[in-house]
Amino acid sequence: MAELREREVPHKEENGIDKSKLALEDDHGEKVGLKRQVSLVSGIALIVGTMIGSGIFVSPKGVLRQTESVGMSLIIWLLCGIISMFGALCYAELGTIITKSGGEYVYLYETLGPIPAYLFSWTSIMVLKPSSVAAIALSFGAYIADPFFPDDCEPPTLAVKLFAALCILMIVFVNCASVKWATSVQNFFTAAKLLALVIIILVGFVKICQGNTQYLKLSVSFDGSATDLFAYGVAFYQGLWAYDGWNQLNYITEELIKPHTNLPRAIMIGIPLVTILYLLVNISYFTVMSPDELLASGAVAVTFSQRTLGPMAWIMPIFVCCSTFGACNGSLFTSGRLAYVAAREGHMVEVISMVHVKRYTPFPALVFTSLVAIIMLIPGDFESLVNYFSFSAWLFYGGTVSALLVLRYREPDIYRPIKVPLFIPIVILICSVYLIIAPIIDEPAMAYLYAFLFIIAGLIFYFPFVHFRYHPKFMGKVTHFFQLLFEVAPSAYEVPEIGEDGKM
Q: DSSP for 282-338?
């Protein structure tokens, strides 16, 4: 497996010197690079805190709308949790073999080659990751702005976007300043959102004990279930987007303490926890609201609290703000690492691959990602753009699971701290194909073609700047300017030590 661990940036060469082999040292003689500062608890908090955003509080109704019954919606929520767990286990196997940060990007790069990896980084860095950060920040902005305006007046769009931009700026400051600060923020806000969900679940349990189960009884809960096969495909799509974030820890493998053990442990604790919470929260909602009332509610958790918590109902919007802030922090934390690793492999400008010489954070990558996210706040509506690009996520998930199967074939005898049964990646691969096709067949639109063409358009930049290694002369001065401005230096990747027994 040496070829996977020792591969260096292929293009950074000047005057016969391979600059990819060089990394500056700090005052203590250590190479500048990302440090292993993320513990098991922080890893679990990152998974849970990123998966649980505003959706389960504000609008967990996409699944119900498609399935048309309470019983089938709960089954879909459970199956989505199982699929997410299967996918995460595949990623755990990959992440314990290829211990670099970057998630799908590095797995595609090391197994299927640079072109699939580049197309993934092009799509994710320019559209998917920043838009996710921007969307979560907008939810935060809407809830923060609401108290400043009368009850009968919607907050102005400008105010919401200003609060969203402020949210992103605060988060990028914390993330650039210290990895420990960022993980502490993540731990705190994850605890806050878990407390909110526990309150909802406890209230739901009380309501069940009081006999409020008219919508949960088996005799009626499956009445009116949808019969259209592709409707369930869209329902899975909606549910799996609520679980999105199950792969976030793979983006920071280089910063995870004992990744060979803590990566699979965090996954096996975090994702079942989120699955159980999602199921219990949805059950709790149906003890207070009918299916029609839930579909009509603009903010389900707020409606729930207004009907059950009385004078304490005001705490739920605060919890939603905490949830969105924490999810935004986790998304930016991992998105910056993707840009950092892609640049380190020569797929983005060199300065983005550098690390702050004192704080050991990917400063330029975080600033770049946050800047793109803030720019995405400017248009009137970018949600439709994100929806049409969302199918690409499962395109790359399927490609990454294919990478696992390729690695099984190429390297059958390599040490695998975790090895999932073969049927698991096959199931995920089948699900990926179905989830790519289902929304396109259910609601055909030219926008899907445009999104696909945008992905392929990345090759316009790949061939001249990556494959043929063309670098404009002025880029050296630009890199030097930002290197001095941000106080950053080329970074080194350190392979985690493995003992004689093959374990960390």
A: HHHHHTTS-HHHHHH-SSHHHHHHHHHTGGGTTHHHHHHHHHHHHHHHHHHHHHHHH
Q: What distance in Å separates the CA atoms of residue 316 and residue 306, rounded to the nearest whole number? A: 9
Token pair belonging to 259: 């990744």
Closest CA to 274 of 286, 264, 266, 263: 266
Q: Is 129 helix (H, G, I), strand (E, B) or coil?
A: helix
Taken as a whole, the chain contains a residue count of 504
Chain position carrying tokens 């420990």? 180
CA–CA gap between residue 31 and residue 344 (Å, rounded): 15
**Measured distance CA(237)–CA(231) in Å, rounded:** 10
Q: What does pTM read for this prediction?
A: 0.87
pLDDT 10s digit of each residue in the chain, 504 long?
A: 434 433 344 444 443 334 444 455 555 555 667 888 899 999 999 999 999 987 788 767 888 888 889 999 999 999 999 999 999 999 999 999 999 999 999 999 999 999 999 999 999 999 889 988 998 898 898 888 888 877 667 788 899 899 999 999 999 999 999 999 999 999 999 999 999 999 999 999 999 999 888 888 888 888 888 887 777 877 887 788 788 889 999 999 999 999 999 999 999 999 999 999 999 999 999 999 999 988 888 778 888 998 999 888 889 889 989 999 999 999 999 999 999 999 999 999 999 999 998 889 999 999 999 999 999 888 755 556 556 667 788 889 999 999 999 999 999 989 899 999 999 999 999 989 988 887 777 777 787 888 889 999 999 999 999 999 898 888 889 999 999 999 998 886 666 655 444 454
Burial of 501 (0-12, 13-18, 19+ CB in 10 A): exposed
Cα angle value 268/250/117 (rounded, 5°)? 140
